[in-house]
Amino acid sequence: MARHGGRGWYGRVLAAAVGVTAVAAATSVWTAQAGVVDRQGAGNSRPSAGSSGPARITTVSEEIVHASDKGAHAVNITIDDGPDPTWTPEVLQVLKEYGVKATFCMVGPQAEAHPDLVKAVVAAGHRLCDHTVSHDTTMDKKSEAYQSQEILNAASMITKASGGVRPEYYRAPGGAFTPYSRHLAASQGMRPLGWNVDSKDFELPGTDAIIATVKSELSNGPTILFHDAGGDRSETVAALREILPWLKQQGYSFGFPVR
């Protein structure tokens, strides 16, 4: 996986608004919201209807997943860095128009700031993914305590913003996974999530270039990376309007990453 650079926008915003708590506090908050971890794999990551308490967590594989749950001729649409009040609604509208479900990898404070959008993502049948607190692409060079804070605090923020639906995946910013972060995420029911096709929409190369990149790299595998925050995402929205029907014309179905 390619490591993205040029993501200082989020660090600057975060530094002005968010402090990082001690890892013990993060763990206790997440545990209080998440409920008991089922080390045997029973339960699920969504609260059941009519349940009076938190759902039991399913421990998942800590291997980085790329495959689609819809099989070999399917793709997984993944959307990173939001939610954003301008661009997430537009992305949601395009997905709705074409009947496509996606996985939204959310940055914790963004979810905390826009709970209505997190709830809209869930209500539309999409899935949630933990994309850390500060989108630090050097996480793999940091301490385990720091990694815990980033992952667990973000998971707590996303869960609260969603109204109780926990993230089902964890995507390290820039692919900066470590064995520790993968194990921690998996123990909390979040499958580490990679990608095969980087649309490079974050670089604002133009709509045509985004489309061409996706088409040329699709043979790499099923999981495609787009963004709905971090700047002007109009090119992404326009590209999705062409890519989604094109994928359908090629006979692809749309799924979620395997858990």
UniProtKB/TrEMBL annotation:
UniProt superkingdom: Bacteria
Classification via InterPro entries: Glyco_hydro/deAcase_b/a-brl, NODB_dom, Polysacc_deacetylase_ArnD
Gene3D superfamilies to which the protein is assigned, alphabetical: Glycoside hydrolase/deacetylase
The protein's Enzyme Commission number: 3.-.-.-
A GO molecular-function annotation: hydrolase activity
Domain NodB homology per the UniProt entry, residue ranges: 73-255
Keyword set, alphabetical order: Hydrolase
EC class name: hydrolase
Name used for this protein in its record: Polysaccharide deacetylase family protein
Organism: Streptomyces prunicolor
Lineage: Bacteria, Bacillati, Actinomycetota, Actinomycetes, Kitasatosporales
